[in-house]
């Protein structure tokens, strides 16, 4: 079964919206930084440029993850998206946070008087508008998927890194813009250009914290996470509902992609059940599972004695 998301192209709206916003903002910030000499504005430009690259990587990861299973990857390529999500987290930390802190440090040890801050304020206002629009799109998209869960729980349970990465990036970008604006204003108000450098370091620390959280979440997905407990319970109930099944030993799942799940089920069948009937029954159960839980891309049902049941010694 293909890893294609049933929502089709709509899954890219959040990423494409963020990409368009960040590219425009990055250019504006670099121009403003060059004209005003603002360190925090320069680091904000780097931040937006890194975010743009991240969205490109996530779009690439989504495209690669849609490839159907083949001989080399019989369970598909869905988890490749998780790899690129982890790379994004590393880039945010290494480039976004690293450059921001380094530029702030340079501005502190070699402060330069700032030019007219008006261009900075104009760019910051435009950036807030564009970032706010991207953030709103990301929030609405994520809100539709979280159901009754709280925000943090939904992020921890999410199997689609593209959604929560953009949400984190846009949230960090909005906070970074506010910090940059405060840094520019205080630098001119007090006549102390080092304040702008300290603002850059604050932005870098913020990006570093976001990168650590994203890396932790992406690592969990890359290693492998179980399906939603409700999906596992539903699969168990479907198998147990058949009278020929005397006991369901376990239902083990792992996400092969945001929308596809591999499931391995161990069940104890009646001892008197003929082999031919058992094969037909397993096929019927698989069909029922796919109908009720379409995210189950690969299903394996193994007949086994009930776990913990008494067994005669091999020499008996």
Brief account:
This is Cation transporter. InterPro entries: Cation_efflux, Cation_efflux_CTD, Cation_efflux_CTD_sf, Cation_efflux_TM, Cation_efflux_TMD_sf, SLC30A9. The chain has about 325 residues and is mainly alpha-helical.
Write a structural description:
Keywords: Membrane, Transmembrane, Transmembrane helix, Transport. GO terms for molecular function: monoatomic cation transmembrane transporter activity. The protein has 2 domains: 8-223, Cation efflux protein transmembrane domain (Alpha-lytic protease prodomain-like), CATH 1.20.1510.10; 229-303, 2-Layer Sandwich (Alpha-Beta Plaits). A 3-stranded mixed sheet has the order 1-2-3. It has helices at residues 13-36, 39-65, 80-109, 118-146, 151-157, 161-190, 194-223, 229-240, 275-292, and strands spanning 245-257, 260-269, 296-303. With 316 residues, the protein is mainly α.
